[in-house]
Amino acid sequence: MRKPDPEDQGAKVVSTDDHPTLGKLLRRLRDRNGWTLKQMSAETGIPVSTLSKVEHDRLTLTYDKLLQVSQKLGIRVSELFAEPEEREEERVFTARRSLGTVDRAVRVTTDNYDYHYMCPELRRKRMIPILTTIRAKTVKEFGQLVRHPGEEYVHVLEGTIVVHTEFYDPVTVHQGEGIYIDSDMGHAYVVADGCEEARVLGVCASGESDHEHSIMNAL
């Protein structure tokens, strides 16, 4: 068997289907900028071999790696999943709308989670809605706690989960309940005893814009 490639850390094996894939979107982003794989690697800090495998849908990137790419490129994570659009003049207000359906979502599969990034056609979103199936049953199985800039809210749709965080005791969250955390605190979501998997809806905010403060000032 082939030994694990150390350059692939932070990336997971992915199976493809009819959903839009991260590989296609990443390749489209590279083409828009006129970059070679080597140039994109230099811009993002992701090894060339990993980028190549992602573009060919042989690997995918975990959320913290997606944040790394977006921060290096100076864009929001949501723009990684958006279709290209013509630049528009700045407007005082927006009136966007998008119906979120699983068949139009961008699917990212890891060992612990099966993500569906909803409403990918909207660019420059301040919130990232993610429908997630959780499979990991223990923190040991999950691995190292993840952390990334921003905040997140997770609401349990099906099953029961246990939330492990860096500074608090584990807490059980049942169907119909939710939890809000600072994302730069190490955290992991695993299924509770007796559950094979759980389904949650999470909303991540990157912290790049003070969205709540802007809304309060507008009231």
Question: Which SSEs are present, and which pair or pack?
Answer:
Layout: E1 11-13, H1 22-33, H2 37-44, H3 48-55, E2 59-61, H4 63-73, H5 77-80, E3 106-109, E4 113-117, E5 127-134, H6 139-142, E6 151-158, E7 161-165, E8 171-173, E9 178-182, E10 187-191, E11 198-205, H7 211-218
Antiparallel strand pairs: 1-2, 3-4, 4-5, 5-11, 6-9, 6-11, 7-8, 7-10
Protein name: XRE family transcriptional regulator
GO molecular function, one term: DNA-binding transcription factor activity
GO cellular component, one term: cytosol
Report on this structure.
A 6-stranded antiparallel beta sheet has the order 3-4-5-11-6-9, with no helix packed on it. A 3-stranded antiparallel beta sheet has the order 8-7-10, with no helix packed on it. Strands 1-2 form a two-stranded antiparallel sheet. The N and C termini lie far apart (61 Å). It folds into 2 domains: 11-80, Orthogonal Bundle (434 Repressor (Amino-terminal Domain)), CATH 1.10.260.40; 126-215, Jelly Rolls, CATH 2.60.120.10. Strand 3 and strand 4 form a beta hairpin. It has 219 residues and is α+β, with helices and mostly antiparallel strands. Helix content is 25%, strand content 26%. It is built from 7 helices and 11 strands. Helix 1 (22-33) crosses helix 3 (48-55). Keywords: DNA-binding. This is XRE family transcriptional regulator. GO terms for molecular function: DNA binding; DNA-binding transcription factor activity. It comes from Croceicoccus naphthovorans.
Give descriptors for this structure.
Jelly Rolls; 219 residues; 2 domains; 3-stranded antiparallel β-sheet; alpha+beta; globular; Cupin_2; 434 Repressor (Amino-terminal Domain); disordered N terminus; Cro/C1-type_HTH; 7 helices; disordered C terminus; DNA binding; DNA-binding transcription factor activity; 26% strand; 6-stranded antiparallel β-sheet
